[in-house]
Amino acid sequence: MNNYGLKREYSAKRLTVMFCAAALLVGCEKDSAPQEDVLRPVRYHLVEDNSAGRDRSFSGTSKSTKESRLSFKIGGTATSVPAQIGQNLKKGDLIAQLDAANYLLQVEQAQAALVEAQAGERNAVSNYERAKGLYANDNASLNELDAARANSDSARAQVRAASKALEIARLNASYTRLYAGDDCSIASIEVEVNENVSAGQQIAVVSCGSEFEVTLDVPESVISSIDQYTPVSISFGSISGVQFSGEVSEISTSGTSAAFPVVVKVHESHPALRSGLAANVTFQFDAPSIDNTYVLPVSSVVKDPGGTFVFIARPDGDPGQAVVERRPIALGELTQFGVEVLEGLSPGDRVVTAGITVIRDGQRVLIP
Question: Domain tally for the chain?
Answer without folding.
Answer: 3
